Amino acid sequence: MLTGALLVLAPLFLGFAIALSNRRLMTVIHYTVEALVYFILALLGLGLGQMDGLLDQLGTMAAQVAGLVMVLLVANLAGLWLFHRWQPMSTGEEAGQARPSYRRLFLAGLKPLLAVVAGALAGYFLLPQLPLVDDVATWALMLLLFFIGLQLRNAGLSLRKLLMNRQGLGIALAMALSSLLAGLLLIPWLDVPWHQSLALASGFGWYSLSGIVIGDALGSAWGGVAFLNDVLREIIALAIIPLVIGARPAMAIGYGGATAMDFTLPVIRSSGGLACVPVAIASGFLLSFLSPVLMGIFLALG
Q: InterPro entries this protein is in (predicted)?
């Protein structure tokens, strides 16, 4: 059972093992990754839209998402604050640097939600029950993970250097451990076995992964809960990073989770300065590897 649950991880490590030097090919891979993300999210929405009793379950799903978001927010910020107290970090913020358009970034953060909503509306109102949707989503996810592995390997990132970044490693571990503690605290609220609650808490902001992996294992409703929890983490991170990174950089970088090495990185860079960039990349990179591993392990225990 464990082997089957972790099989989805193989493409990630396979991609990371391949070195490419063709910049044009890497550009094609970049746009393919973006297209696959929205395709997978649309399939997630399609599954939600065609779920039996969807309207009756929306209230329950909203309560589950709210519990996940709030408990993870408090636990993560507390754990990252404690790490900051133990290992203080200076941002080295640069005066006069250009700030990103937070309105543009916020709107970009809503795009994943729109993809899921579009898929859900199509599934609910337009499309009949389609065979093999889950299989297509799983294969699309495996292809996505392969391409992401290629991107990680060919982004000039040395695994040894990333693992030796003490701040990035510490932030990632504080984030992961506090999330698992939150998962244990959420067991009565979510009313699921402990291993499922821990799996739900292990997305670390990677919504295109958690929504499909959780959905395949626990059903479309839980897949939607996992997706919403992780996409809301990204949106909240965009709001709080500029506010706290000056005084508590570990909290700002860590709460972004896996997105600290990509989507929230421009905000971290502009708000915290260049000194935050290698730490954010290391933390996001490590959480990107930990998330599928932990979800696979916990779901295999069921």
A: LysO
Of 221, 255, 195, the residue nearest 65 (C-alpha): 221
DSSP one-letter string for the chain:
-HHHHHGGGHHHHHHHT-----HHHHHHHHHHHHHHHHHHHHHHHHHHHTSTTHHHHHHHHHHHHHHHHHHHHHHHHHHHHHHHHHS-----PPTTPPPP-HHHHHHHHHHHHHHHHHHHHIIIII----TTHHHHHHHHHHHHHHHHHHHHHTTT--HHHHHT-HHHHHHHHHHHHHHHHHHHHTHHHHTS-HHHHHHHTT-TT-HHHHHHHHHHHH-HHHHHHHHHHHHHHHHHHHHHHHHHTTT-HHHHHHHTGGGGGTTSHHHHHHHH-TTHHHHHHHHHHHHHHHHHHHHHHHHHT-
The residue with tokens 């809960």 is 225
pLDDT, tens digit, for every residue of 28-38?
988 898 888 88
**What pLDDT was estimated at residue 92?**
57
pLDDT value, residue 244: 86
Please count the CA atoms within 13 angstroms of the CA of 252 that sit on its side-chain side: 28
pTM above 0.90, yes or no: no
Calculate what percentage of the chain has a pLDDT beyond 90. 27
44-85 residue pLDDT tens: 788 777 777 667 778 888 999 999 999 999 999 999 999 998
